[in-house]
Specification:
Chains A, B: InterPro entries: HTH_LacI, LacI/GalR-like_sensor, Lambda_DNA-bd_dom_sf, Peripla_BP_I. The structure is a homodimer. The first copy, chain A, has about 350 residues and is of the alpha/beta class. Chain A has three domains: about 10-50, lambda repressor-like DNA-binding domains (434 Repressor (Amino-terminal Domain)); about 65-165 and about 300-330, Response regulator (Rossmann fold, 3-Layer(aba) Sandwich); about 165-295, Response regulator (Rossmann fold). The first copy, chain A, is about 45% helix and about 15% strand. In chain A, strands 2-1-3-4-5-11 form a six-stranded parallel sheet, with helices on both faces. In chain A, helix 9 (about 195-210) links the parallel strand 6 and strand 7. The longest helix of chain A is centred in the C-terminal third of the chain and has 17 residues, at about 300-315. At the A-B interface, helix 4, helix 5, strand 2 and helix 7 of A face helix 4, helix 5, strand 2 and helix 7 of B. Strand 2 (about 95-100) of chain A pairs antiparallel with strand 2 of chain B. The structure holds a DNA duplex (16 and 16 nucleotides).
DNA sequence: CTGAAAGCGCTTACAG
DNA sequence: CTGAAAGCGCTTACAG
């Protein structure tokens, strides 16, 4: 049942040509005559020849494969990024191999070890939440395997990075609340151990400062993982204040959604009483009522850009470039949670 | 900067042993003395030897790699399945390479072609929505590359399959509505070209028949993709009836969510006036208000089972087994959309 | 324009 | 318990 596979040699014997010529003909090498190329290609088709890519990778030391390490693939942000990576990679003849660190430094190190085995030409990484030092990735620099980091990126060494400007985005989000007339603005913050959430908090504060509004420390609520349940707890805390905030910038959409739901249940009107802005433009932001104003974090584009940058580094190594850092443009999507719809 | 990699030969020279012995020692071959093993392993560690997995794959014809073809990875169901696959694969020393068919038959065929190049030891597939005939996958049988299909599986040939019982699940969901006292029950159906949605409709009808309830053809609304927007349209259609249904079984959660939202906007109380059941247990089902009663479709487990079955077929080929079909147990998760919470 | 030959880095059947 | 040798299926520098 199981057929032996056709190899270059089989084709060569069949056509009375050398394996070299077959190889070149299939590779559309300029030195081969058109007649021969056609003959070879027809025969290859006829016998159902599929080149053994492992043999080819072995010989050329190129696998046309990209490794991706993400915390979890079932987080929508990451699945969108991966989708962007796969899209760009596919168009350029690369395939993508995926690993989940599960936000465990230990597992991230194991994966880094595995990936040193020549399986991939380059690596795209979003660091695990536990990762503070990136020594386990420095090896790849020495091996000449390019890396691109996105979202959670290393701070302890120069690296190729694709990020958004969290500070600016948070500033824009907060400014939007201010322009809508909010004066007493709260923030639900992510872990301050993570740079991106720190930057969002900073951007929030900077906007208040620019517009000479007071920073109410007690309205800045800290969460660990910006989870939906944590958002519920934050919302309840706000409700205990003698005076509610009139605007809240949430560091992600999940917490924004829970605030909306808890507030509405308590008769707080959104956006009339409190305006809410989220961050990420998750699918739920379009479904929750009122629809959520949020920052579009360009996840798909982040994937595309990561793949593009990585493949460029794989294919033409420019000895003079040590690392590149690319910042993507985010945008504020204004919806009902900060603005009455004119429906 | 870029170091030459250490090979078996380097180790051999360093230790005055043959490459054969090094290879066996690292592989923990029983014929090698413990002393030698230790010596070799220490040296390998010292020099930072990483075996070239491409060379090894080339030699053994095993890549320890699984190919996955999904319609899109940014659909939550698929990202959960992939997560389950990656998890099981990782534990068993396999890695996973992902391709998106984008629900295009043409692209699916291209990918099938690519995967014939020896890159993977086996393949897990969810067919594109356009796929009716699976000839492009039959090649893998001949090549001895095992395949496992999940969710959308082939009907035109025997294959390894992991599915849920859509008929039974739909039956259970509908029966639940009936037991809650619903008598005039509607259904929002997916494309009847797709077996799983056909089975859900059949299960729905079977439950009504068993309990001797009328099947109101006009309350069975057909959609193309079970999208959120399509759900909105269906909901509006229901509202135009002189008499509303008192229960609706939706073939997925998106349409269920839109029905809930549209109905509530029109003052229809859920579950008092109309009880709603969805299908899939998407994250939104826990967030929408009221929370959605739905069928847990075991996406993660489906991934695990697919990987498990595939790896079994890769590692011990049993000549007597032609194909296996595994049906996973789903369960109904009862929430507020069919039952008043006792809070 | 085509071919002969070497070699990529492993693994393994065979020999001792 | 260890080694010599062959070979997996390609690619490519060299020769003609």
């Amino acid at each position: 049942m199981k057929n032996r596979r056709i190899t270059l040699k089989d084709l060569a014997k069949d056509l009375n040509l050398s394996a070299s010529t077959i190889s070149r003909a299939l590779d559309n090498h300029p030195a081969i005559s058109d007649a021969t190329k056609k003959k070879v290609q027809r025969k290859a088709e006829e016998l159902g020849f599929i080149p053994n890519s492992i043999a080819s990778s072995f010989r050329t030391k190129k696998t046309k494969s990209i490794g991706i390490i993400v915390p979890r693939i079932d987080i929508h942000f990451h699945s969108l990024v991966i989708s962007g990576i796969e899209d760009f990679a596919y168009k350029n003849g690369y395939n993508v191999t995926i690993f989940q660190s599960k936000d465990s430094l230990k597992r991230e190190k194991e994966i880094a070890k595995i990936l040193q085995n020549r399986m991939v030409d380059g690596i795209i990484i979003c660091l695990s939440i536990e990762t503070e030092k990136c020594d386990h990735f420095k090896k790849f620099d020495k091996l000449g395997v390019p890396m691109v980091f996105y979202d959670r990126v290393p701070t302890d060494f120069d690296a190729n990075k694709i990020v958004i400007n969290d500070f600016e985005s948070a500033f824009t989000a907060t400014e939007h609340l201010i322009k809508k007339g909010c004066k007493r603005i709260g923030h639900i913050a992510g872990s301050q151990k993570t740079d991106i959430f720190k930057a969002r908090l900073e951007g929030f504060k900077a906007a208040l400062q620019k517009y000479k509004l007071p920073i109410h420390q007690d309205l800045i609520l800290q969460t660990k993982h910006l989870g939906y349940e944590e958002g519920v707890i934050c919302a309840k805390k706000y409700l205990e204040f003698s005076e509610l905030p009139d605007g809240i910038f949430c560091a992600n959409d999940y917490t924004a959604v829970s605030v909306i739901q808890v507030f509405r249940k308590h008769g707080v009107k959104i956006p009339q009483d409190v305006a809410i802005v989220g961050f990420s433009n998750y699918p739920i932001s379009k479904i929750i009522e009122p629809n959520l104003t949020t920052i579009n974090d360009c996840a798909f584009q982040m994937g595309e850009s990561s793949a593009k940058l990585l493949i460029r580094h794989i294919e033409d190594k420019d000895e003079f470039i040590n690392s590149e850092s690319i910042t993507l443009r985010t945008n504020l999507i204004i919806r009902e949670s900060t603005q009455l719809s004119n429906a």
